[in-house]
Amino acid sequence: MKVSKRAQSVPASATIAVTSRAQELKAQGVDVVGFGAGAPDFDTPEYIKDAAIEALRAGKTKYTAAAGIVELRAAIAEKLHKENGLNYSSDQIIVNIGGKHSIYEAMQAVLDPGDEVILPTPYWVTYPEVIKLADAKARIVQTDKSTEYKITPSQLQSAITKKTAMLVINSPNNPGGFTYTPDEQRALAEVLEGTDVYVISDEIYEKLIYGKTKFVSFASLSEDAYNRTLTMNGFSKTFSMTGWRLGYTAGPLNVIKAMARLQSHMTSNCVTFCQYAAIAALGAPAGEAIEKMRQEFERRGKYMSQRLNGIEGVECSEPTGAFYCFPDVSSHYGRNINGAKITGSMDFAKALLEQANVALVPGLPFGCDDNVRLSFACSLEQITKGLDRLEEWLNQ
Ligand code: PMP
Q1: 89/253 Cα distance (integer angstroms)
Q2: Is the beta carbon of 172 within 6 A of some atom in ligand 1?
Q3: 21-67, pLDDT tens digit by residue?
Q4: Top-confidence residue, 283 or 275
Q5: Distance, CA 102 to ligand 1 centroid (Å)?
Q6: From the alpha carbon of 247, which atom of ligand 1 is closest?
Q7: Which residue's C-alpha comes closest to atom 7 of ligand 1?
Q8: Least confident range of 54-58, 287-291, 361-365
């Protein structure tokens, strides 16, 4: 059977590829340390599981409105109001099958063929693919360590053309582990004033911020920003619910309605009993569980970045958000390590896995070949063991 040109144009996710290879080696009995994870290594809090079980027992097992049950949309509206200073009505919110689906559907609802989407590096691997699937074009803006990998207002200004339809902002950032300050976001928002550029603000790592870092929702910066922004968030990272597939989008009513029309033909509603669990997740006693997880990530991120920085030829800043370190390892490029020629991040990751049994993700699919991504969603013990191996491997 033939495969469409559309499907052929989309590669498998590079992050999943690394995890699969590491799992293959583990299955063969190899002691692999995996730094590939994109999911918190904590279980979903018990009270959320209980709410799902209760919903199942109460017969919440049938279709709901495609955009989600009103009670959940109202709970999300309240969360956005209380925590983010955003005023959305329930109608301006759609519940999607994970944040990935939110982004896919938002692009399908807004973009036309030939539209351009400004995408700063490093970007989450899925963005370029969903832009392509909407027949639009990613206009990639290369950032570097001089601005902590953040796009500057002047870079944004020069990337805008007549065809620009959208800017994607992801803060805290995957894979970069950095967070835009409110002032930095405000400066970007000001550049957009007077243009027709929409914004997707991917806020999925909102609760995982460290040190003095402050989180701000892009749409809350000004009335202008509110009107041009689709705020995207989800339950995967904050509540350790990656497998439940729950994300949401809030924004202008006409776009949310368009997304709901698309969703009504693509997937219909999110799993019904999961929607009830999501209402529970947003209520008390979420704070305590989230804070415990956040503190643990902060401790690990500090340790991992310090260790990485102490390795010859590795540069890593301390993460301010998410659960990733994104060191520059490019000073090792050009070396030959045990017969493996390291020309870039792909060779680096492959050789490290094969020779030292450490799995990390190359930076190339994130648009930064000088870097590699290490997730600290694993125990401190694993982190220590993996970094010992990495250090030894590089010091040969
Ligand atoms: N955005 C970013 C930046 C992510 O890293 C992820 C998960 N890897 C998502 C969105 C989507 O998460 P989910 O589909 O599980 O909600």
Answers
A1: 9
A2: no
A3: 888 999 999 999 999 888 888 999 999 999 999 999 999 999 999 99
A4: 275
A5: 10
A6: 16
A7: 38
A8: 287-291
**Rounded-to-integer distance, Cα 324 and Cα 305, Å:** 9
pLDDT digits (tens, 9 = 90+) for 158-217: 999 999 999 999 999 999 999 999 999 999 999 999 999 999 999 999 999 999 999 999
DSSP letter (8 states) at residue 371: B
Question: Buried b vs exposed e over 326-352: b needs ≥16 C-beta within 10 Å?
Answer: bbbbbebbebebeeeebebbbbbbebb
- The span from the CA of 282 to the CA of 276, in Å, is 10
By most ligand atoms within 8 Å of CB, the mutation choice from 95, 101, 105, 124 for ligand 1 is 124
Site to probe by mutation for ligand 1, drawn from 168, 230, 237, 361 as the one with most ligand atoms within 8 Å of Cβ, is 237
User: Ligand 1 within 6 A of 173 CB?
Assistant: no
Distance between CA atoms of residues 276 and 336, nearest Å = 55
Asked if 362 and 351 touch (Cβ cutoff 8 Å), the reply is: no
Tell me how far CA of residue 277 lies from CA of 52, 77, 264, in angstroms. Answer: 5, 16, 22
Q: What's the gap between Cα 97 and its chain centre?
A: 15
377 Cβ closer than 6 Å to some ligand 1 atom = no
Q: So what's the pLDDT on residue 362?
A: 95
- Ligand 1 and 174: CB distance under 6 A: yes
Q: Is 13 helix (H, G, I), strand (E, B) or coil?
A: coil
Neighbour-count burial for 225-264, b at 16+ CB within 10 Å, e otherwise: bbebbbbbbbbbbbbbbbebbbbbbbbbeebbebbbebbe
What tens digit of pLDDT does each residue of 77-95 get?
A: 999 999 999 999 999 999 9
Cβ of 100 less than 6 Å from ligand 1: yes
Token pair in block for residue 249:
């989008």
